[in-house]
Write a structure and sequence with these properties.
mainly alpha
C-alpha cells in the first residue's frame, strides 16, 4: 500500500500540472471573447475521438460497453455530475474571475472529497477520515486563502461572486462523480476506459448546452476551437487519465484517497506560473509566496502521514 500511495501521489501531482492548463486557457479564451459554453462543451467533443482511439488500440472497448450497458442511467447521472456539473461552472467562472481565483477556489475540492465520503460509503466521518488528514487539508486551504488576500482587493464584488460560487459547486461535483463512478465500475475498468465512458455518458449534457448556445446566437470563435483542443488533450485526456489512475490505485483506502485528492492543490502553483508566462500577469507578492509555502507544506504532510501509519501497523 505504501508503494501504491507513493505512485498515486506522484501521478496526482503530474495530473495537476496538466489540469492547470484548463484554468489558464479558459481565462485566455474568455479574455479573447470566447463564450464559456463552447469553452466547456468543445473540450468534451474533442476528447471522444482521442480516447476512443486509445481504448480501441488497447482492445478495451467491448468491456467498457458491456459495463455501461449494465447500468446506463447511473453512468449518465454520475458522468453528468462528475464532468458536466464540474466543468461548465468552471468555464462560467473564468468569464468573471482571473485564473488564480478560479484555481484557488477550486481547491475546496480537497475538503469536499472528505465531506462527501462518509455519505457515499455510509460510514461515520470519524472512521473515514482522520483528524490529521483534515488538519493537513486545512493548512493547504489556509495557504490558498492567503494567496488571495492581496489579489482580492483588485477585483469587483461581481467578479468575486461569479468567480467563486460556480467553482464551489464544481468542487463538490467532481469528487462526487468520480467516487460514484469508481463504485459503479468496481475496479473492472482502467482509467482510460472510465474516462471515455464518462465522456460519452456526459455527451447529452454537452449537446443540450451547445444547442442552448446556438439558440442565443453564440458560436465558437476560430481561436477558441483550437484552444479547446489543447485543453482537451492536456486536461481532458492526459490529466484526467493520470488522476483516475492515481485514485484507482488507492480507491479502497479513504485516507490515502484524500491525500491523492490533496495533490490537486498544486494546480494553484502551476496556474499561477502559467498566468505569469502566458497572460503576462504580475509576479507573486509576499502573500502569494507565504501561501505557496503553506500549500507545499500541506501536500508534504499529506504525503508522509500514511507512510508512518503503515509502518506503525506493521510493527
Amino acid at each position: 500500500m505504501k508503494s501504491n500511495k507513493s505512485i498515486a501521489i506522484s501521478l496526482g501531482v503530474l495530473s495537476a500540472l496538466f489540469f492547470a492548463v484548463t484554468f489558464v486557457f479558459n481565462r485566455l479564451m474568455s479574455v479573447q471573447g470566447g463564450h464559456w459554453i463552447w469553452s466547456s462543451s468543445l473540450r468534451f467533443f474533442w476528447m471522444v475521438p482521442f480516447l476512443l482511439v486509445l481504448v480501441i488500440l488497447r482492445k478495451n472497448l467491448k468491456p467498457l460497453l458491456i459495463q455501461m450497458k449494465q447500468s446506463p442511467w447511473q453512468w449518465i447521472l454520475w458522468s453528468t455530475v462528475g464532468f458536466g456539473v464540474f466543468y461548465a461552472p468552471l468555464t462560467f467562472a473564468a468569464a468573471y474571475g482571473p485564473s488564480w481565483l478560479v484555481a484557488s477556489t477550486w481547491q475546496i475540492t480537497i475538503v469536499a472529497g472528505m465531506i462527501i465520503s462518509p455519505i457515499i460509503n455510509k460510514t461515520s466521518f470519524k472512521n473515514t477520515i482522520s483528524f490529521q488528514a483534515l488538519v493537513f487539508s486545512l493548512i493547504i486551504l489556509l495557504g490558498i486563502l492567503i494567496m488571495q488576500i492581496s489579489q482580492a482587493k483588485s477585483i469587483s464584488t461581481e467578479e468575486l461572486l461569479f468567480g467563486t460560487i460556480p467553482v464551489l459547486i464544481a468542487a463538490f461535483a467532481y469528487p462526487l462523480g468520480n467516487r460514484k463512478m469508481m463504485q459503479v465500475s468496481n475496479g473492472k475498468l482502467n482509467a482510460i476506459q472510465r474516462t471515455l465512458g464518462m465522456t460519452i455518458a456526459s455527451l447529452p449534457f454537452w449537446i443540450l448546452l451547445s444547442l442552448y448556445g446556438i439558440s442565443i446566437d453564440e458560436l465558437p470563435s476560430e481561436p477558441q476551437v483550437y484552444q479547446t483542443l489543447v485543453v482537451a488533450i492536456c486536461s481532458g485526456v492526459i490529466a484526467t487519465i493520470l488522476f483516475f489512475m492515481a485514485t484507482d490505485k488507492v480507491r479502497n483506502d479513504e485516507k490515502a484517497l484524500a491525500s491523492v485528492e490533496a495533490t490537486q492543490s498544486a494546480e494553484v502553483l502551476f496556474a499561477l506560473l502559467g498566468e505569469v508566462l502566458i497572460l503576462k500577469s504580475h509576479l507573486p507578492d509576499i502573500y502569494s509566496i507565504i501561501g505557496i509555502v503553506l500549500v507545499i507544506v500541506g501536500m508534504l504532510l499529506h504525503s508522509f502521514k500514511k507512510e508512518k501509519t503503515v509502518v506503525s501497523k506493521a510493527s
